[in-house]
Specification:
Blueprint (H helix, E strand, L loop, with lengths): L3 H14 L1 H28 L12 H4 L7 H17 L4 H6 L1 H6 L5 H35 L5 H31 L3 H30 L8 H15 L3 H13 L14 H5 L10 H32 L6
Helix pairs in contact: 1-7, 2-4, 2-7, 4-8, 4-9, 4-11, 7-8, 7-13, 8-9, 8-11, 8-13, 9-10, 11-13
């Protein structure tokens, strides 16, 4: 891995010194602070002269401030961070002729791709960590509630999952940057993937589920369950759904399942105390562990494909 440290430092410096990163970070931070401020003021007004419930600080991340909550905001717009950071990482240097000159130095080719991806992941981690810390500080100032140890751990796990999630989109952008020489083409391809998983997967899941089970109605609960199961299975092919379900369960201790509709039997209704009380962090992690492992796996696979394509690709000066 000769030259990895050099490439990593150079890419990290490029990210933090670019106007693109500064503008992107400023926009995301501004929207996040607006959401946090609106949620904090709402919670403060509603909890005034009332005993603060447990895990009230986590409401800062899961309560809607206007149109969406902070968790929903990162789930939907977070991919744009990775896509914007990586759509021209390789082909821009190819077109400028700097990549061939870098490889002419005593630097291994795998150090280039590894250093660029690692620098992007570190930049994403610093960005997400900074925003979460600023939101936490704003919540402390406005709500006057100190988060408990379990809440801090949940926020930390949420931050890790968010970094992995956005790193997946960074890997997608780097892959298209390797496949296409044109910067515009790679940007449009990466954007098309984001639009597909954001809108068309959920829409297609609904259409396919209704096509397979067209006679679902109030008088046919079995058909409704089957239709929902098919729709759910198709929707889980989207990284956005995986991330949303995983983080919603981690940040909200009262959420017992990732499913939106749960059918229970008569004995479960009678023994409702079985479902009362928040889950521990360990129990929440066990529920969403398959989702987290899937996100890590698809991120690793995406980068592995980028790595193999880049290692086999011929690099010529422009």
């Amino acid at each position: 891995m000769h030259g990895l440290k050099v490439i990593f430092k150079k890419e990290l410096a490029d990210h933090f010194s670019s106007y693109r990163f500064i503008i992107l970070f400023a926009l995301i931070c501004m929207v996040s602070l607006i959401i946090a401020y609106m949620v904090s003021m709402t919670i403060k007004n509603e909890m005034q002269d009332v005993a603060k419930p447990k895990f009230v600080f986590l409401l800062l991340f899961i309560s809607q401030g206007g149109l969406f909550s902070f968790v929903q905001f990162v789930a939907f717009f977070g991919p744009l961070i990775g896509l914007i950071m990586g759509f021209d990482l390789i082909n821009r240097e190819k077109n400028e002729g700097t990549l061939s000159r870098v490889l002419a130095q005593p630097i291994y080719r795998d150090s280039v791709i590894n250093g660029k991806f690692l620098a992007g992941v570190v930049t994403i981690a610093i960005m997400i960590c900074s925003i979460i810390l600023v939101i936490t500080g704003l919540g402390l100032l406005l709500m006057g509630v100190v988060p408990g140890f379990d809440e801090i751990l949940r926020i930390f796990v949420y931050m890790i999952i968010s970094v992995v999630y956005i790193s997946f989109w960074l890997g997608v952008a780097i892959l298209f940057s390797i496949l296409f020489r044109s910067v515009t083409t790679s940007a449009l391809a990466a954007l098309a993937v984001w639009i597909f998983f954001s809108f068309f997967v959920s829409l297609g899941a609904n259409i396919i589920a209704k096509a397979f089970v067209p006679d679902a109605g109030p008088d046919k609960p079995d058909a409704i369950v089957k239709q929902i199961s098919i729709q759910r299975a198709i929707s889980l092919t989207s990284p956005i759904v995986l991330y949303s379900d995983a983080t919603a369960t981690i940040v909200d201790p009262t959420k017992k399942t990732t499913r939106s509709i749960v059918f229970v039997g008569p004995f479960e209704k009678i023994s409702s105390e079985r479902f009362s009380g928040p889950l521990s962090l360990k129990e929440s992690l066990l529920i969403v562990l398959p989702y987290i492992i899937t996100l890590i796996a698809i991120t690793a696979i995406c980068f592995a494909i980028s790595y193999m394509v880049f290692m086999r690709q011929e690099i010529r000066s422009a």
